[in-house]
Design brief:
Length: 114
Amino acid sequence: MKPLSGTGFRPGPEGIRRRDAPWKRLRASIVLASLLATPAWAASQTVTLSVPGMTCAACPFTVRKALTRVEGVTRVEVSFEDRQALVTFDDSKTSAQALARASENAGYPASFEE
């Protein structure tokens, strides 16, 4: 269909409506702004926690649940045999100290392994 000259409108099956181009630009601007608002310096870190208090096969499930509830944690691997938890997290949302505190609050004090 032919647009009406100079008006910014074009006829459609439901009648005359406004062009979609300004909305597309607005949507693209919003997406770009949200991407730029995310901190660029945020990095994923991995820490190994020693959890010597795990004494039974059910303990790793409790430790894993406590650690995954911490905001920013993306991956948790808990080993009962090694009495360790390997945790990957976003350092802009949490810290290694917060992870140790979460494990301790669940009843399993943890320390950092070098």
